[in-house]
Design a protein that fits this description.
Distance between the termini: 47 Å
Shape: globular
Mean pLDDT: 84
Radius of gyration: 21 Å
Helix content: over 70%
Number of domains: 2
CATH topology of the largest domain: Growth Hormone, Chain: A
Number of helices: 19
Number of strands: 0
Oligomer: single chain
Low-confidence stretches: 227-237
Strand content: under 5%
């Protein structure tokens, strides 16, 4: 069977399977901590104000919020370093070994994590086993490795700059659409069948996409590029040596103007990623807390509505042509949206504040494409290894920082964390 040069189906199914369980992680942890701290079952009701009205249990909500936030912090901290190391090695070495390894390895790791989550949920095992499962799955690279490999795959196929930007934006859009469908499905899954069935469905999707990536997806790197870095040495050290040499050559071969531009674009990319994903990572916890006290159905719809930013951002990239204007609009979108979230107290307004955030994803594909144009084809893997490394590191640090601040401020003002996110948007705005 002839292979296909289509990485989009891999991204689509991966997004669906991941976002089918992503909203469940915080809900599952939240419910388990509730049961441990109150010695009672989690209150399930269609009344979204139930936690504000139940005065006998209201004192537990702040402690549950704090424990759930700290659990997320521990999970991210312990899984960050292995994931970062594997991302740098695999994506940089993909310039020689091929892009498929950077796609297949994270799929295996995600499948391990999903099966572990299903096991903990089904047998009601200790919650902290999930931290070990997260650490194990991070040894296979994680999301940063997967996306770095996919974007490098697209860069191999596209010679035209506009085509590259549109296909990268198309990947982001596909993530959003499938993530939205999965998020809506999650709420009904949990309400009707509990947590186990979403995990089973996600594992089946991940098996399917793994088979596609192994047997159908065609490799883009058929041979080592002529201008690639030549290496001599033992096989076990070649990946590390190529990673170091590739990253060094990426900066050394560029003239001073291109080097400065590349560094500035990376600063904008990482600082914007820090403030956006840090604030967005706490949306679910904020919605579970009073006075919103959302049900799993409302959280599913809220997550689905949030993922429409991928579709609207794709439209924005298609309509606007000047790259820096697109990035500027995306930063302003996040700043205004986070400011409004900080003062939101009702369900209607919580849905409404998603509107200012509709263009928030636009800067990412544009910045990736702009940086990719500066770097020759033989060093695309090194570029996207750096981007994935910085993005993964930034997101992990931002989740740790934002969760710590949220745990410290949730008692007196839960919306403070979103004010902090809006304020930090000044950094990428200034550099831009």
């Amino acid at each position: 069977m002839k292979g296909l040069f289509l990485v989009e189906p891999v991204v689509a199914l991966y997004a669906f399977s991941s976002f089918l369980i992503y909203p469940l992680v915080q809900q599952f942890v939240y419910r388990r901590f509730w049961e441990q701290l109150t010695n009672s079952t989690y209150p399930i009701s269609d009344n979204t104000s139930r936690c504000a009205e139940n005065s006998s249990q209201s004192s537990y909500h702040q402690e549950v919020q704090k424990q759930a936030s700290l659990f997320s912090l521990y999970t991210d901290l312990l899984s960050t370093l292995p994931s970062l190391a594997v991302t740098l090695l695999l994506v940089a070495y993909s310039d020689r070994a091929g892009r498929k390894i950077t796609i297949i390895m994270p799929l295996i790791g995600t499948l391990i994590y999903t099966v572990s989550f299903l096991t903990v949920s089904y047998y009601e095992l200790n919650l902290y086993l999930l931290i070990g499962a997260s650490l194990l799955s991070s040894l296979f690279g994680g999301l940063g490795t997967f996306l770095g490999g996919c974007f490098a795959y697209i860069a191999d196929l596209c010679a035209d700059g506009h085509q590259k930007t549109m296909r990268m934006a198309g990947l982001d859009m596909m993530i959003g659409i499938l993530a939205g469908v999965a998020s809506i499905s999650t709420g009904y899954f949990v309400k009707s069948a509990g947590f186990n069935w979403p995990f089973i469905t996600s594992a089946m999707c991940q098996c399917l996409v793994l088979l596609y990536a192994v047997f159908i997806l065609e490799e883009t790197v058929k041979k080592v590029p002529e201008d690639a870095v030549a290496l001599n040495g033992p096989p076990q050290s070649s990946a590390f040596e190529h990673m170091i040499s590739g990253v060094y050559k990426m900066f050394a071969r560029a003239d001073s103007r291109c080097r400065t531009t590349l560094i500035l674009l990376m600063v904008v990319f990482t600082s914007f990623s820090f403030t956006y994903f840090g604030g967005a990572s706490l949306m679910t916890l904020y919605e579970l807390n009073k006075p919103l006290c959302w049900t799993e159905i409302l959280i599913g719809y809220g997550s689905a509505l949030s993922t429409t930013v991928f579709l609207t951002s794709f439209v924005g990239v298609s309509v606007f042509t000047y790259c820096l204007v697109i990035v500027l609009m995306g930063i302003m979108s996040v700043m205004s949206g986070m400011l409004l979230v900080a003062f939101t107290k009702t369900t209607f307004l919580m849905f409404l504040v998603r509107v200012p955030l509709l263009l928030s994803i636009m800067p990412f594909p544009v910045l990736r494409s702009m940086m990719s144009k500066i770097i020759p084809k033989s060093e695309q893997g090194a570029l996207f290894a750096c981007l994935s490394f910085f993005e993964n590191l930034t997101n992990s640090v931002s989740v740790a920082v934002f969760n710590s601040v949220y745990a410290a401020t949730v008692a007196w003002y839960p919306g403070f964390i979103f004010l902090m996110s809006a304020g930090l948007c000044v950094v990428p705005l200034f550099v831009l």
